[in-house]
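Q: Start with the shorter request: fold the first protein.
A: Done. Sequence, then structure:
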Amino acid sequence: MASLTLPPAPTNPRQDAIDLHKAFKGFGCDSTTVINILTHRDSMQRALIQQEYRTMYSEDLSRRISSELSGHHKKAMLLWILDPAGRDATVLREALSGDTIDLRAATEIICSRTPSQLQIMKQTYHAKFGTYLEHDIGQRTSGDHQKLLLAYVGIPRYEGPEVDPTIVTHDAKDLYKAGEKRLGTDEKTFIRIFTERSWAHMASVASAYHHMYDRSLEKVVKSETSGNFELALLTILRCAENPAKYFAKVLRKSMKGMGTDDSTLIRVVVTRTEIDMQYIKAEYYKKYKKSLAEAIHSETSGNYRTFLLSLVGSH
């Protein structure tokens, strides 16, 4: 369930473009108007506004935002106005070829997306950056982590809820043999099962594993693997079981302790607002006894804070 709130009556993209242009004009930028318009339009409406803006003012809205806003607020807004696939592609491209390589972000985007989301995003990546996602993964990652990511973006998995109990039991046994039962780990088996199976199937494997061997599959992954490979397996497993809980945890981590990991905070808020942010908020509150809005409020300030809170909702 999305946390995005839209005006009760349909809005006119042309009027929005005019109001945005007015907000940018003159000395300083009327950020309140910009936030009010853009954080209350869905991705279809945002695309139409950008079209109108380009037609009327012969300028890209993203270019204008770039010159009017700054810091985290600018970064968040530029990501927000993209369509979901364009946004994922942009975050990935930055994570794999920016000034600082961020394999955590790349792993999260890839391993928490559905096969159909990944398909569209791969096409967008190629169209936008003139290079294949697989090529950039190959350049920046290595070992089992690389094998897993390449398989995950390459294999069209089933997305429905049905599972075959026989195959589930078989997979649980194979994972046991590949991990706990032997000395060392047979990573190939972990990669095969985790990348070829649907989320519903993986959730069933986790529960069968627990039932058969009295140990959680998550603990097994943690003790048998490490580094980015472990991170990728855990992301797949947690998203298969409960994506909202997974993202609540990622958000909590980004705001815990000294300082805030703003790029993670922005990434999760902006990419999940139109998907499952209501569920993420519920999981956050359940686990940390504090609302996500409160946490964001205390970790951010100014227009950046106003922007994020407009997306997640203040309760």
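Q: Next, the second protein, separately.
A: Sequence, then structure:
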Amino acid sequence: MKFAVKAWSNGGARAGILHLGTSTIDTPSLLLSTRKGLPHFISPDLLSCLPSPESRLLHVSPLHFLEGLSMKTISKIGGLHQLLGLHDHCFVAVPRDSIQCLPEASSTNKIGASFETPCGRLLIKPVEYMEMISSTRPELWATLADEVPAWVSDKRNKTSVDRTIKWLDECISLSPASGAVFGAIVGGSSLEERRRCAQEVATRNVSGYWVGGLGLGESMDERPALLNAVIEALPEEKPRLICGLGLPEEILQGIAAGVDLFESTYIYHLTLGGFALTFPLDRTQINALNLAPSDVGSDPRKINLRATVFRKDTMPIVEGCTCYTCRNHTRAYINHLLNVHEMLAQILLEIHNTHHFLGFFRLIREAINAGRFEEFRKEFVQRWR
């Protein structure tokens, strides 16, 4: 893995280039949320419909594979690339995801981290976690962490940092020859513990940093201070990854602090609810946008395609959108699919929402390269709030 920062904007936001596997990806960038290595509704043959190479970063939790094939079998097959047939994509492994494999702080102990998984509540030890990493063979993986919610005590925050640093050293000592290592940084809502953890991890031989423990109860108002406490202690030349920030405002908040990679379940939740992203991705359209209240009660960023108002709507989801869904289908057709409970509705919606959200990241990179990120951020937040 190689990473280089190419542009800064307003002090914290930065644009760079990440060389991972055979792909070269511009940052800030999105990791596509997956279930067992594949997007939730998009089949492998439809992945080519998504913008490339932006869509080649796939977030995966090794815990997903605890049901079904054994780790020994996955290793014999040749890891996730051979198992799934995705040789041009890059897998980024993080212990938890934000849908099914959530950390359970009250059950975590000094032996290992506890997670709620489809297989029930499991205690994962560092040596077991590294067996999963060795078997699945991702291009990039984050070390095991003791993630805690925002409301725990100062003593519990300190314990989480001590355990995470201890497990970091164990994971590094057991790490396979391939795959870039991202050191986990935790500390809950404590600025002091966040800063201490970041300083400790920065002294280790890692390729980048995973900021964990966010999106677990802290407010948006207290998050900037937590992010700044971490980022200020990290070297600039290494990439930063974050989980748990999914809304567009949260993404912009993370980028303002200097985060490069984002794992987000926003697309999944939109798609599951029958929503489609519709906010304009062209600066001229943004400035000319009329924000009058919508007839269907949706906010200006998305529309609810289950609504009866779309039953006879022959327009694409977004006029001028180049995604497969908008080029081939209408709002009326997707409304019909949703109302008769056809899975094709979620497939078409996930294609559009992924395409649109990747376009949002492209707009952000353009704003950073032009030196106007903070202006772009203020415009976006003010218009949609």
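Q: Describe the second briefly.
A: Residues 146 and 160 are 5 Å apart (CA to CA). Residues 2-263 form a domain with the TIM Barrel fold (CATH 3.20.20.105).
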